[in-house]
Every structure is written in C-alpha cells, then in structure tokens.
Amino acid sequence: MKKHNDSPSLDAIREGAAGFGASGRRDFLTRLLALGAGAGAAGMGLLPAAALAGERDGRPAQRLDYDYVIVGAGSSGCLLADRLSATGASVLLIEAGSHRIDQPKVREVALWLQNIGSDTDWARQSTAQAQLDNRQQALAAGKVVGGSGSINAMIWLRGDPRDLAQWQRHVGGPWTAEALLRAYDDMARPVGSPGSGPSRIRVGRYADPHPLTAAYLAASGDTGLRTIELNAGRPLNGAGVTEVNATADGYRVGPAQAFLVPALARANLSVLADALITNLIIQGNRCRGVRALVDNALVQIRANRETILCAGTCESPKLLMLSGIGPLDELRAQGIPVRQHLPAVGRNLQDHLLLSLQYRSRVFVPPQLSNGVSTMSYYSNGPAHLAPDVQVAGMQYPFGPLQTPAGGSYTLIPFLAKPRSRGRARLAGTDPRQSMLLDPGYLAERVDRDNMVFALERGLALGASRALASFNGGLYPADPLRTYAEKLAFIARNAGPGLHYTGTCSAGRDPASSVVDSRFRVWGVDGLRVVDASVIPEMPAVNIHASVLSVAQLAAKVLVEERRSHHHHATA
Ligand SMILES: Cc1cc2nc3c(=O)[nH]c(=O)nc-3n(C[C@H](O)[C@H](O)[C@H](O)COP(=O)(O)OP(=O)(O)OC[C@H]3O[C@@H](n4cnc5c(N)ncnc54)[C@H](O)[C@@H]3O)c2cc1C
C-alpha cells in the first residue's frame, strides 16, 4: 500500500503551521499587487489598479483567514467571488494559473485556439478510449484567472428547458426549472439591454452578415428544421444563429472580465494567483480551509464560514479525494485516511463528442466574423420530452484535423448532444500536481454510438443540401461513408472531445449516488461546497458555459440568502 503524500519533492515542502513565514507573506502580497498591475480599460481584459487601493493607502495587510475561501478563479469561481464579496463578507479567490488575462490569446476572440496546449491550458489527457480506436483525447481546460471561461470558444447557448426539468428531477430543492431560468437572467444579458443590477455577461450576435450563415439556415430548412431564436429559453426544435459572449469589436467578455474585474474594487475581495491548492483542512466533520503551494511552500488559509471548490470537473473530485472524501476503496488503495465515504466522487463523468466535416468551397469564403460560428441545428432521435440528441454547428472557417485553406474551405461539426455513457475520474496517485485518470467513456453505450452515427448523417445531409450547393466542393476525406460500420469507423478514427466535462461531483438527492445536496453542500462535511461544472448531474444538450454559470448563479443565491439569515439571527 502506498503512503499518503509519497512524492519526495512534496515531502520536502515546508509546511508553515501558523500560516505564511515572513517571506511567504511578502510573496503573497506581491502576487496580489501583480494582479492589479494591469490598470486600464476595465471590462476589456485588464485588471484595475483600484483593487490595490487598500495596500497603497497603507490599510491593513491581507489576512490569512477569510469568511469564504474559493478554490479556482474559473467561470464559477469568478461569479461567486463577485456575488459573495458584494455582501461585505471577506473573500479570498485562489487560482493555480496566472492573472494574465490581458494577453492577446485570452482577450481576442479570434485567437482563442492558441490557448490549447499553451501555458493557459492544464493540457490533461484522457485514458485510451476503447470506442475511439484507443486514442487518448486532449482534455483542454483553462489554467488562468477566468479558467476555461478565459480560453473557451465563446459560443453562448442558453440551453433547452427540457434539460432543466431533468436536473430538477435529479436534484430537487432550489434546482427548479424556474429558478434556473431566473438564474440565467441574473447572470447574462443581451448587448444593448439595460445594465443595472448585478454584473452580467454581455452576449451579442454577430454572425448574420456572413454568407454561410444564411446558407446554413436554409440548409437546415432543407433538412426539415424551422428557424428559431437559440437563446429564448424555449425548446431547441430547429436551427438558429449563434450568439457570442464578446464585444462587437472582438474582445472576450468572460467571467473574469464580467464578474471579477468590477468586483476587485471591493477591499474585502482578494485574489491569489499562481497558487495550487493541494487539499482541504478537515477537522472532525468540518472543513476549515485549504492548503496551498505558494513558491514551493505549503501554507494554510482558513475559511471561517465556507470553503467552496470551484476547481472544475477534472480537479474538484481530486481535491476531495486527496482530503479523504470519496470512495472508501479508492482512498484506502492510495493510503489516504478516510474522512467521509462518498462513493459518487469521480463517477458520472460525461463529455460531448464531436466530429469535423471539412468541405472544399467552390467560392471564396470571407474571413470569419467574431468566433466564426454561424449556426446551430438541433435534431432529435428520441422522445419529445427530452432535449435534442444532436447538435450540428455551421462554421465559417476550417476547423479540424486537416489543414485546409482559409478562404477555400468550411466545416460542419456534428456533436453528440446528450451522451448516455458515464465515465469516471480516478486518483492516479497522491501528488496534488498529478492529473487524475480521466475516462469520459466516450461512446461506451450503444445508444451513443447510434446517436453519433445519426449526428454524422445529419451533418452529411446538411452538407449535401441544395442550399449549400453553391459552396459545396466536396468533403475532404475520401473515406467511404455509406454503411453504419463505415460511419462508426470514421467516428472512431476522427471524433474528438467536446471539452464540456461534467458530473464528477454531481448534485443529487442522497449520498449514495451524489456528492453534494441541492444546496451544493458536500454530504457529511460541514463548511464545504462544490460549485462548478462537476455538480451538473446530466449533460445539457448544448455547449455548457451558460449552464455552468446559471448553476453558479443559483449557488450564489443560496449562499447569499444563507448569509443574510445567519446575520439576521446573529443580530436579532
Ligand atoms: C478550450 C475550451 C473551449 C470551450 N468552448 C466553449 C464554448 O465555446 N462555449 C461553451 O458554452 N463552453 C465552452 N467550453 C466549456 C466551458 O468553458 C467550461 O465548461 C466552463 O468554463 C467550466 O467552468 P468551471 O467553473 O467548471 O471550471 P473552470 O472555468 O475550468 O475553472 C476552474 C479553475 O480552477 C483552477 N484550479 C483547478 N485546480 C486548482 C487547484 N488545485 N488550485 C487552484 N486552482 C485550481 C483552474 O486553473 C481554473 O481556473 C470550452 C472549454 C474549453 C476548455
């Protein structure tokens, strides 16, 4: 049996029992200063110097205990940091990646792909996928302030209300479809609509003038779909023009820009970047805070009220397990003392799966507008009370494994919208710097293979439709795609990850099948919540960012209400 924390280099790390030593504290402050150093156009990717006002005025130095400690400054963490600091509570937001959201590949919509495999990507790998020719998949995720919301493609889709009804069934409590629809409105707003109230993500629609947009919509009509408004909060029975969380002149409006930057004006919010959380401090059945690696020193940071894990689907279950919260047998096998047996930690891992159909164009394709995504078309292969099984994106540029000429090619992306297969995230060891063994179980279920073939067929039908005839110069790869077996083989060789991991700390109704309850509390551990994509119990039928943020907004509402009633009782 292995010993807990058996990594030699980690053993060498000094643990400052009383918090930071003198030099550690200085480094901490340096980091907080660095975060505010990029003064300038707030909201456009630069962090304001106002965040540092407290330091410059000679007000008290940063504390080492906070009301709320948030682990991970990603999509969910940025939203919660804003909503919780607005109550006056002291909040520390901790991020393993850097604070550099002012760099071009993060700021500029057209450059988002440059993040993949770069310093802003955790660049994890899946296990070999049996149904994908045993290919490992590159599971990108953001490692920078703003998290995956700082490196994503900015496709903004509200989702299908039939998925919300499914979540309500799985989780109950405050997870009603109505509350989730309201949470969306509290978190996002269309460009040009009034801007009062809490900070919200601005969402715009820029694809209309591109000639492929009208062609894709007409092609969808050729395949039997009607044209719909994608973000109206209604069932996705049709095809529509995509929207983007970005400005009209091409800059990202992600969670860092929309939620965190404005909130930094509050003296009660601090951000610590370049700090890896290694595990939680658990005393009895209560979480008291976190341990973090800061410049090779292990430091402790206390949370007086709550610790909130927002580290994402591939990391939050790891931090629970490294802290003794997870499946008993798996913890024992790693020599980790068991604090709370929770068998669902790491289970229920899901992801979308996609294919690129790359076409030669007979005519010149003008440069992409915004993120280059024109339309989404939805097709159902199952019962009408469920959200669509398939989404096909109409793209304005070559996207996929083949190097095809810009201006001379375009792409359709069929996508398995409702995967039924469930995979698992397992500990690979006890070194907190090591990725988990991530098995999304792509296409493990027969129904998913059938639906992926159906997605490919819908994509091919769109591509071959009359409305696209003036563009269609033929599909690039020459593979025969006639029989089911040929289509499945093409999928096995070419499909890639959706990058929409969910489910490893699923919310639910009992500790046997879920990790958090409907109020995001980890079963059996006080003072500890998980709020990120990992709590989503069932994959929504669309790209998930808006869904993740709606769930985080719901969590913020729960936490803020609890804080208010606590205050009320304390002062009554
Ligand atoms: C390349 C890419 C493109 C995508 N494109 C789209 C799209 O176009 N549309 C869409 O709807 N969705 C898209 N998504 C998905 C969407 O962006 C994510 O699902 C969403 O941002 C996840 O939010 P989260 O809060 O769960 O986690 P994240 O935003 O990933 O945040 C987790 C944060 O925690 C930090 N962290 C992790 N571990 C630790 C630790 N131990 N210590 C300290 N910090 C830690 C991470 O660095 C990260 O900042 C895309 C995702 C990727 C990766």
In total, how many beta strands?
Answer: 27
**Number of helical segments?**
14
First-to-last CA distance: 53 Å
User: What sort of overall outline do the alpha carbons produce when their principal axes are compared?
Assistant: globular
Write down the CATH topology of the largest domain.
Answer: FAD/NAD(P)-binding domain
Q: What's the short version?
A:
It is built from 14 helices and 27 strands. The chain is α/β, with parallel strands linked by helices. Strands 1, 2, 3, 11, 12, 13, 14 and 27 form an eight-stranded mixed sheet that branches.
Q: How does this structure look, described?
A:
- Its cofactor is FAD.
- With 572 residues, this protein is an alpha/beta fold.
- The protein folds into two domains: 8-103 and 253-349 and 504-571, FAD/NAD(P)-binding domain (3-Layer(bba) Sandwich), CATH 3.50.50.60; 208-241 and 353-418 and 443-494, Cholesterol Oxidase, domain 2, CATH 3.30.410.
- The protein contains 14 helices and 27 strands.
- The strands form seven sheets. Strands 1, 2, 3, 11, 12, 13, 14 and 27 form an eight-stranded mixed beta sheet that branches.
- Helix 4 links the parallel strand 2 (65-71) and strand 3.
- The termini are far apart.
- Mean pLDDT is 90; it is low at 1-62.
- The structure holds flavin-adenine dinucleotide (FAD).
- Flavin-adenine dinucleotide binds next to helix 4, strand 12 and helix 14.
- Flavin-adenine dinucleotide (FAD) binds at residues 71-77, 94-97, 116, 140-143, 147-149, 151-155, 157, 276-277, 310-312, 315, 319, 499-500, 532-533, 543-545, 548.
